Amino acid sequence: MASVEFQNVTKSFGTFNAVSDISFKVADGEFICLLGPSGCGKTTSLRMIAGLETPSSGKIMIGPDDVTHLHPKDRQISMVFQDYALYPHMNLADNIAYPLKVRGESVEKRHKRAKEVADVLKIGDLLNRLPSQISGGQQQRTSLARALVYPSRVYLFDEPLSNLDAKLRLEARGFLNHLQRDMGMTAVYVTHDQAEAMALATRIAVMDRGRIVQFAPPIEIYRRPATTFVANFVGNPPMNMIPVEGTVDGERLQLRAHGVLVRDLPISQGIKAALGKGAGLTLGVRPEHLSMGTINDVNMVSGKLFANENMGPEKLVTFERQDGGRVTARIFTDDAVETTENVAFTFDGAHATLFDAEGKRIPADGEMPL
Amino acid sequence: MRLSFPQLLARIGFSALAAIIGILFALPLIWFIFAPFNARAELGIAIPDPWTLQNFLTVFGNGFAMRGLLNSLIQSVGGVILVAAAATLAAYALSRSSIPGKSIVTYVLLLFSSVVSGTAAMVPIFLIVSSVGLMDTHIAVILVFAGGLLPTAMFILRDFIDGIPKTYEESAMVAGASPVQAFFDVALPVIRPGIVVVVVWAFVNIWGSFLIPFILLRSDDLMPSSVAIYSFYSEAGTPIVTLLAAYSLIYSLPVVALYLFVSWKFGFRFFGGIKA
Ligand SMILES: Nc1ncnc2c1ncn2[C@@H]1O[C@H](COP(=O)(O)OP(=O)(O)O)[C@@H](O)[C@H]1O
Ligand SMILES: [Mg+2]
């Protein structure tokens, strides 16, 4: 295992920068997820670690080595591709053992090793089949087996679960998490599924338009999203974003949405600095931090009932505020919503996040690391 | 479903027309199968009475014609190997590399290939071949065929390779394979169905070609069957139908055999990528 480091890496295709000046370090044994919407440069970043793309500028290190211009075969890495890339003319045993073949291992040795890995992944009795003769889930495990069959410094995954159906995906996700705990592998895992990133990563790098907007542990990403983009992308349903107008009243800040007071809080250093950029702020509240209340509560949002979806243990109540913006609350199934015209929810101020006019999170004074 | 009377009439009319067209196409084939075994074969179709192998015996006795079959084989196999090998490598490079303007290269070559193998180019080809000193050799025929067929073969194969995900070779290289290993271990077997198509197509093209060997060769013992078949014409230029029919049947067998072999071994089907 080894660390991976990006130093001011840019990759451009023509005049378009798919990855713009990103720097980050993956420590030895860390499982990093690159998370972001389609086209934000995740795959390109991963392929640069693999050596399948060459950075236009910047440097990539694996362990102590500068690998920026090293051929993929010399990097001692493994990669699981989104389409699995199983060789259609080879049976599973030969597919899994191929990395050992190019390393010059004898046939007996590599088939023995392939069988070991395949048994762990529960495809041990399919070794004589061709890739076209097995199911999607089995193909996925075969490509995983091929990546695990030889010792690697870094494991790379490009949306390896996106071609599986929901149930298999959860199962495979659990297995990958187990594997990570077991092997302590250094991994870079690309996904656009925030739940997958939350479940697997030790740290998540959220990407947007070729840049990393936040690189932090999942809990921090979830609780303290650095920007409105991250807040929107992470969490399902995403964080509720309420545009508010901030007015200073003595030592307190009052947040109004369309004239209605939503929240009233003491002014901190961070808020002072943020107000310099404009009074148009955004208040972010996660659905689970909203609970049913009355119109007279402080920290209150209200509106007309829009949807009431039962999810089993909980339900999602969505209502439409006066300005048309929608807010979703996640509450217990047994909590009944009595009215439809003026549904009111309150939230704990400690769990509300405030973003400045540029969409950056305003930190509380003396905030401790999570 | 019940058909109305005009509809019924239209159906019957259409079927009858189709049958007539079908028969028109079948007639030469039927002749082709019966005539070689008929000692008195003429241009009309007749069931042999009695069936005989006499025509074949006479043909086998014609050394020039028999030698022609061997020459056809040498030239076709030589040309096919050259076309398939060169087209595979070129198409692979054109598909996988990022040479700027690579598709223009392919189209320009394709354009010129119809000129090179066309009748119009026969004089320059003749001049080139004779100035290189290759006149009257198998090599000359093979090279000229390869030159003419290569661009189209490259075009067919490039299209085929473009449709194969790059991730096959990429995963091989990440796993530790050199580009050459990745090509031979992974890419080539996946491309093989495309190569087979090119092989069959090139073989049929060279096997049936008359003009190029006729112009580039002099010696009787180098002539392929397509030229040697004229030894079954009398001095006056009229065909000896019996012998011509027998020789034609023999001449067509390798092509049929190749088709059967390929469809048995490869089934003219493609692996393609693995769909999720
Ligand atoms: N080979 C390429 N040539 C041109 N543009 C590319 C190439 N590869 C990726 N891109 C572009 O770079 C951007 C990032 O792509 P990618 O890294 O695949 O995104 P993601 O994996 O996050 O969906 C996309 O806009 C894509 O169109
Ligand atoms: Mg991608």
Beta content of chain A? 25-35%
SSE-based structural type of chain A: alpha+beta
H/E topology pattern of chain B: HHHHHHHHHHH
Report the sheet-strand fraction of chain B: under 5%
Provide mean pLDDT of chain B, rounded.
88
The whole-angstrom Rg of chain A is: 25 Å
Helix content of chain A: 10-25%
Number of domains of chain B: 2
Would you summarize the structure shown here?
Chain B: Pfam families: BPD_transp_1. Chain B: This is ABC transporter permease. The complex is a heterodimer of chains A (370) and B (276). With 370 residues, chain A is an alpha+beta fold.
What's the SSE blueprint?
The complex is a heterodimer of chains A (370) and B (276).
Chain A lengths: L3 E10 L2 E11 L4 E5 L6 H9 L6 E6 L2 E2 L10 E4 L11 H11 L4 H14 L15 H13 L5 E5 L7 H18 L3 E5 L2 H7 L2 E6 L2 E6 L1 H6 L4 H6 L6 E10 L2 E6 L2 E7 L2 H7 L4 E6 L4 E3 L7 E11 L3 E7 L5 E7 L10 E5 L5 E3 L15
Parallel strand pairs in A: 3-8, 3-9, 6-7, 7-8
Antiparallel strand pairs in A: 1-2, 1-4, 4-5, 9-10, 11-12, 11-14, 12-13, 14-20, 15-19, 16-17, 16-19, 17-18
Helix pairs in contact in A: 2-3, 2-4
Chain B lengths: L4 H30 L19 H7 L2 H34 L5 H15 L5 H11 L5 H25 L4 H8 L4 H29 L3 H6 L8 H4 L12 H25 L11
Helix pairs in contact in B: 2-11, 3-6, 3-8, 4-6, 6-8, 7-8, 8-11
The structure holds adenosine-5'-diphosphate and magnesium ion.
Describe this structure in words.
Chain A has 370 residues and is α+β, with helices and mostly antiparallel strands. Chain A has helices at residues 42-50, 92-102, 107-120, 136-148, 166-183, 194-200, 218-223, 228-233, 269-275, and strands at 4-13, 16-26, 31-35, 57-62, 65-66, 77-80, 154-158, 187-191, 203-208, 211-216, 240-249, 252-257, 260-266, 280-285, 290-292, 300-310, 314-320, 326-332, 343-347, 353-355. Chain A has two domains: 4-233, P-loop containing nucleotide triphosphate hydrolases (Rossmann fold, 3-Layer(aba) Sandwich), CATH 3.40.50; 240-355, Nucleic acid-binding proteins (OB fold (Dihydrolipoamide Acetyltransferase, E2P), Beta Barrel). Chain A is elongated, with a radius of gyration of 25 Å. The model of chain A has no long low-confidence stretch (mean pLDDT 92). Chain B has 276 residues and is mostly helical. Chain B folds into two domains: 5-52, no CATH class; 62-266, Orthogonal Bundle (MetI-like fold). Helix content of chain B is 70%, strand content 0%. Chain B has eleven helices and no strands. The two termini of chain B are 40 Å apart. The model of chain B is unreliable at 270-276 (pLDDT under 50). Classes of the chains: A alpha+beta (370), B mainly alpha (276). Chains A and B meet through strand 6, helix 2 and helix 4 of A and helix 7 and helix 8 of B. Magnesium ion binds at residues 42-43 of chain A. Adenosine-5'-diphosphate is lined by residues 13, 18, 36, 38-44 of chain A.
